[in-house]
Amino acid sequence: MRTDAARVTIMALLVACALGLAACAHAPAKVETPVTAPAQLVPPAEPSATYPEAPTPPSAQAAQPSDSTIDSATPTQVAGLTPAQYADLFDRMRAGFKLDDVQRAAVDRQLNWFAAHPDYLERAFGRAELYMYHIVTELEARGMPLEIALLPVVESAFEPYAYSRARASGLWQFIPDTGNRYGLKQDWWYDGRRDVVESTRAALDYLQSLHDEFNGDWLLAIAAYNCGEMAVERALDANRAKGKPLDFWSLKLPKETQAYVPKLLAMRRLVSDPETYDISISPIPNQPYFARVDTHGQIELKVAAEIAGVSDEELYELNPAFHRWATDPKGPHYLLLPVDGAQVFTQNVSQLSDDQRMHSETYTVGRGDSVASVARRFNTTPNVVREMNDLPTGALTVGTDLRVPSASDTLPAKVLLAAARVDNPTKRMSKRPHVHVVHRGDTMYSIARRSGMDVNKLAMMNGMQPGDPLRAGQRLRLSNNNDGGGRTGTVSRKVTYTVRAGDTLTQIAKLFQCSVKEIMSWNGLASHKGILPGQKLTIRMAGRRG
């Protein structure tokens, strides 16, 4: 039995503990002091790791890494973890895989190719580190299979400047018409098909729409993403008529599509268990690489890089949609920046004057000048001249000073190439229509897709229906004399490309749509081997005449 003194002592201790806990419960939380913009530009030497002024997309904000992140985890060890608790983004992806691992010879063939080319995977996943976190986060927010985050490996090897002969562009390889259908703006300044955030939104919208159209069958949706929904619908109709199964593996689809879906499934299997295939995949940190920041209007991209403390090359890798020296005057008015540079940029951009934001050239209107002639002089379009100067329609006044685009020869080679591919609305029309000779296995839809056309327009121009059969040797008109779709004259323009680690002449030739022999000839190379990182190569690009 305790004595009264003991009871008093115990009660005192209990009261003290209670008071201590209460004090802890009511202690003010640590509050970050708001950042006040200083009177001069903030140096980007030591940026803060937190940036309330530079928001990431809402779904990305919900998946910030937490203190409970597990340092080394395998899929069997991490069951039940939240997305933010994974250290490696690949582990987070594996936990969200939903497609069946089917045993098919077509998948095995693609898997063997990937396993035999680890350098290809290393380059693709090295580029993916910039964009993958955003893609995974957006897929999770929609409840979609995380295997789809691997689709850009198949489409573009995660090269945002990738461009196909069918005029498909960007990580997700949108052709112009499909890009327009899903709200991707495309003009002289900007191509939303290469906008990392916007093209991802559009691709996931498109894939979800296809998934719904094909009654929840993801393999049919992915196939249709490659060859178009009409091609898949026709194959399904053909199988229904013959009483055949309606799954992807039973359909007669274009050869490219027959390999496309197995490529994604092979990539899924390899990422699920790389060790089995003697492949080492470097981890990607499970945290956002970039943040989206407001520019509050047009800004020169070199200025943006300077005030954010990042290199020009890094800025263009995150913002490949802008293919000129500045952002689009009509928007979008945002940039993607590494998280470390986002707060610094946000603080600095608000302090720039209009002249500091844009280092454009000035041209004084002379006698006989028109908006069109000034545009031709500075390799731009009349609309751009009017936009930059807020000009009404009508003639120019002699002696007026106009802002015009700066010379573009200082832009990176990739950006110059992207700009050269933009259709000039004032281009001259060809006297003869562009004609395609049908090859064995061609369909109306496959020709339309390769040519960047709407299949209904192609059929109408040739007096046919989209589903009409084609014969080898048949000629199809791809453009009319009066539709602005003809080819134009070209001029050769030289750019300098700096070789990066891992580059080969084959890859560089593919990037610039030329041959290895041409690059060797332009640069006096005796062999296609032996190029070194940092080496300068001259590339002759064929640009359209205005």
Strand and helix layout:
Elements: H1 4-26, H2 58-61, H3 89-95, H4 105-116, H5 118-128, H6 132-142, H7 151-156, H8 176-181, H9 196-213, H10 218-227, H11 229-242, H12 255-272, E1 290-294, H13 301-308, H14 312-318, E2 334-338, H15 339-349, H16 354-357, E3 361-364, H17 371-377, H18 382-389, E4 401-404, H19 413-420, E5 435-437, H20 444-450, H21 455-461, E6 475-477, E7 490-498, H22 505-511, H23 516-523, E8 536-544
Antiparallel strand pairs: 1-2, 3-4, 5-6, 7-8
Helix pairs in contact: 4-12, 6-9, 9-10, 10-11, 10-12, 13-14, 13-15, 17-18
Describe this structure as you would to a colleague.
Mean pLDDT is 78; it is low at 1-39, 44-78, 423-433 and 481-492. Helix content is 41%, strand content 8%. The radius of gyration is 28 Å and the shape is globular. It has helices spanning 4-26, 58-61, 89-95, 105-116, 118-128, 132-142, 151-156, 176-181, 196-213, 218-227, 229-242, 255-272, 301-308, 312-318, 339-349, 354-357, 371-377, 382-389, 413-420, 444-450, 455-461, 505-511, 516-523; strands at 290-294, 334-338, 361-364, 401-404, 435-437, 475-477, 490-498, 536-544. A two-stranded antiparallel ribbon has the order 1-2. Strands 3-4 form a two-stranded antiparallel ribbon. Strands 5-6 form a two-stranded antiparallel ribbon. The chain has 23 helices and 8 strands. It is mainly alpha-helical. Among the domains are: 83-277, Lysozyme, CATH 1.10.530; 290-356, no CATH class; 360-405, LysM domain (Membrane-bound Lytic Murein Transglycosylase D, Chain A, Roll), CATH 3.10.350.10; 490-544, LysM domain (Membrane-bound Lytic Murein Transglycosylase D, Chain A).
